[in-house]
Amino acid sequence: MEAEAFDVAALAPLGFVAIGALVTLMLEVVLSRRAFVGEGVDPETRLVARARIGIVLAFASSAAIVLAMYAAIYQFELGFETAFGPGRPMLQLDALSTFATALIGLGALLSVWLSITYLPALRINHGEYYALLLLSTAGMFVLVSAVDLISLYLGLELTSLPIYALAGFNRRRLRSNEAALKYFLMGAVASAVLLYGMALLYGATGHTDFTGISQGFAGGGGLALSGLALVIAGLAFKVSVVPFHQWTPDVYEGAPTSVTAFMAVTVKTAGFVVLMRFLVLALPEMGEKVSVLLGVLAGLSMLIGNLMAVVQDNVKRMLAYSAVAHAGYLMVGFAAGTPEAWTAVLFYLFVYLFMTVGVFCVVIALAQGGREWDSIEDFAGLASQRPALAAVMTLFLLSLAGIPGTAGFMAKFYLVVAAVDAGQIALVLILVGTSMVSFFYYLRLPVVMYMQKRRQDPDAETSSSEIVVLALCAAAILYFAFFAQADPFGTGVRALDVAGRAADFLH
Amino acid sequence: MSFEMFLFYAFAFLAVFSAVAMIGFVRHIVAAAMSLVVTMVSLAGIYVLMHAELIAAIQILVYAGAIVVLFLFVIMLLDLRDGGLGPAARGQNLVKAVGVGGTVTIGTLVVASVSGVFSVNPLVESLPEGFGEHRALGIALFTDYALAVELVGLVLLASIVGAVILAKRKID
Amino acid sequence: MPADPQWIEDALLRWIVFVPLGTALASGLLLAVFRRTLSSSLVVWMSCGSVFASFGLSSLSFAKLVGLFGEVPVDDVPPRVLIDTLYTWVGVGVGNSAFSADLAFRYDALSAVMCLVVTGVGFLIHVYSVGYMRADTRDDGGLQRFFCYLNLFIAAMLVLVLADNLLLMFLGWEGVGLCSYLLIGFWYGDRQNAYAGSKAFIVNRIGDFGFIVGILLLFWSMADAGQPAVSFRAIEAGFGSVASQTLALPGWLGGGEIGLATSIGLCFFLGAVGKSAQLPLFVWLPDAMAGPTPVSALIHAATMVTAGVYMAVRLSFLYEAAPGALVVIAWTGGVTAVFAALLATAQNDIKKVLAYSTISQLGYMFLAVGCGAYAIAIFHLVTHAFFKALLFMGAGAVIVATHHEQDMRRMGGLRKKLKLTYWVMVAGVLAICGFPGFSGFFSKDEILTSVFFAHELPGHVALYWMGVATAGLTAFYMFRLLFLTFHGKTRLPRGRRGELDDPEDTMMWPLQILAVLAVLGGIIGLPQFWGDRIGVAESNSLGHFLASVVRLGEPHALDAGVVAQLVGGVLAASITGFGLAYVLYISRPGLREKLEPVLGVPRRVVARRFYVDELYDAVFVRPLVIFSDRVLSRGIDAGLIDGRLVMGSAHAVRGLAAHVLKHLQSGLAQAYLLLMLAGTVALLAYLVT
Lengths: 507, 172, 689
Prior knowledge:
heterotrimer, A: mainly alpha, two-stranded antiparallel sheet, 2 strands, 1% strand, globular, C: mainly alpha, 5 strands
């Protein structure tokens, strides 16, 4: 059998992060060996040495991610379009996958920067942290370009396995261990459900690639539909849509905050993109029934997510439920299922990245003295102690709530317009109504930050890497509030157009 | 019903039954591990019926052999009295196992009957030449599925690193 | 747009907004990011200067606009508008439903009036705040922060009134809400303020829900008709084609149909109800008085709370097609006017009296809107801005002079000490009570006249009498305020009686300017009837000016007899109110105690605001929390989280692995899995069957 030519350049982003993962893994071993060659080093020196190694590793990972992003953006601009895989296509490299790759890369990059000072602050041994993070990123790169059930499944596992470990990285903390174990168990069940669904789909259609499934699917049939239901359930777990969301609060709270930020933005992006591609390619004429189903999931997620967030006293838990709610908003776009809706979903994911990373970055900036400051009372009086931090936190929260003047509003706006156009009036009403409810909990933090007495340790400082992330996120939120479709600096790039091009993969 | 069909349903029943037994019925954790072996072997039987002999062999080697043996080692090392399952837990587990197993089984049966699976012969009548042999499998893995094999490598790496980290004794 | 000669591009407009906005951002950035505290005089000059510059620019544009009026006959219908388009903000949709919204400011007659009020009165209040806040800031940087918020508020309010489309208007709408939230809670460290700020913001969510649904409904119906639009001009042009459509009501609302225009109008009105503190969403405004007094004057009297009225007038073309909505507006306004006036009579906090008075006066404005007398609503909005800002700032002067005493029961006899404050307050009280010739007289009289002649409005006679009763109650509570504060013997604690004096000049001269405006401000909208009497050929210049934006309506057939009847009615009510106040609080104070047993219960009910707050708490807030907390988190989301797990963590000493395993056995993970499985089965069942 003759092997076809490998278009290796197409796999550049994946290759960069995978090699980056191996390099950081090795680098850590080499550097640690050199640093701790003598026994009897006192703990303080070890800590400092570890922090130094951490910076090197973070730099190496950043380099790998930046290269991957550069390759992805380059491919996007070229209008790259190729199916990869000798013999049978496993990965489809097109505008959607390169867009999503760049987006996930950005999320991963910001998460790496968040970790630099956070890990030493919590006395977490960074060890293989960065390597795992890169491996997971590689998995998501596979996921967003998967056009075959096999690559989808492998991508999902490669995404998830490192995150299970990362969630348990703070081994001193019971909650972190518990988060890892719980996430792992439930993830395994979700994977099993997904696999079962895939098997049924294969059995019903005789294909594992999306286009083949869509041809085999034409007749419908109970077996294919059951497969579809199970696949949707498995993916819904990853993006924490109700009723597959129960792991979210426990894992968000238990995992180290930098890991929470990482999975909150990147896994969500990857999960929604693959779900989008699967639905569009495997079910070209998405029936009324599937649309209703997605609508019900959307409605439930918005309601339960927002209502549950109201009663949380831990910021990370609250943000977990808010993530469930946002998954619900995104599902509204899925229920609409028009090209405009896909554009809106992608733009929403883009904006969501900045808001979420920003919010978690503030939580990280508060961490000190070996513990997290993540209960609502821990934010008391922040405004008088660290006014800039309180101000950007307020901005991020308002953006999550979707107040006009922030990018979060624009994201919701496009989503709502698309949904209205598609006639999803009931979902839009739920979206608007629950957004109003969301002000209840988002505003609790500004209230304690601005209107209560100080609780923070006065010596705390925001590190420079955190300042970079915060400034970037805040600037992006303000910029895209007004220039989502405008181009004031003549760069020729309009955010919504970019998202639109990415969503154009249908044709 | 042909003899092969009979075998198929027999293996299928055995697989499901011993899976449910594993969580619900057995009193000792070693017995639970053994029921797992039964499930695995039954599955291997089904593979054989489907002419996937190589997979069947691997199934027995890897799952029934290596993995369950590993489980047994761990159980022995833990040195659990009382079979590891407390008397209170047992009753509870039975309820859960029957509940979950029942839900899944009934759900599957409902789906299967609605979708008309029962009318389909689960056994393949005609197969391409060399199906299920190591040669065909090898060629597929190194041509069409080369990328998948590479990815599996990464997945394994990730799981090894993750397992080492979480299991490492020293926290520093 | 330039194709239309009536639409003149004017790039100056953006600076009306950008100057205060830029100042706010600059000082905010300096303070928050660079921790640079500016000297207080620089802060003062910057912020007051920027608002004054904004006022100057507004006046320039006003002159330009008036110049345009000179070129074409006044009664020519097409609007004369200055427009400043920055760029296309959003543009989405395909085919029939494609639309775009510009980031554009529009300066027509209505915006002009609002803009001048906001910047003019805003400037006076800024100057006043300098004196007020100087005595009152706690930490350094506090003054800077205060003025930063204040400028931000002015900018947001200007966006609101200058917006060319609904989207931008919504930006301003939320912006003012946010700033008011920040300003109410300005004195942090005080839980009461924090609570009041949050309450204001959250109660407004309900209104905003209506506002957004209104926008969506409007957008959806117009997109359906092939004319999607969010800019006011395009909506006005295209609305005719959908105005007559109807919506089918869902079964649980009783079925039937409702006019599209009516439902959109009602949605927007819900937004106005929230922002302008009408029944039933008024509860936040009295609590908002916890903020500094200049904030109350600026936001909760002169500007932000009138945004609802402004919006209703801005969308008057929509309401013209929705008589049903107008009836609701008129009745809401009328009932709120009486209700709030009644509540005002039972308040002892000087600022709360004024807060309820504001609600009541806003009710008057909505009453006018409901009668289709849009120009008159704006007229009252302007005069109200003058006299209510004056009253608030006068009250602030009293509060400063008495070292933060707000309870009128502990004031009294201040007339001799705070002479200037007393006289400006008298001017304000007379203006609000409608003393003939004062500004409030004309605007209130005009409103009641329109109600009197609004024959198409169901129950307009009742509404008229409610308006008259409100006038009487207004006179009563305002004079009660005046008498309790300034007359009689002083009831101040001994320690504070000594060096009482009018506050410093920076606080007093804005008061004097406003006093003049409150007295003479009626001139701008002087009704033609009175204009004829004093020999002005073309009076009611405000009305004619606004005619380019709103329908003015036919002039009422007024003769001296009708006018005498109308004016007489109001005056009689007012004089009764005044007399009652005089008797109870000046000549025979002992009578109050004798009346106490008779009026005890109703008085207590009024004092507790008819238990509306308690009602809301019981009906909305508590069920939400209980539902989320008890039902959702304890029930559905495996409440074991709190109970078993948190308790368990306390015993974390006992080896990690064993511990974690124990928790897993406690059923938590299994419960999750079971739910997940149930979800999967439900999904399966739905798709397959």
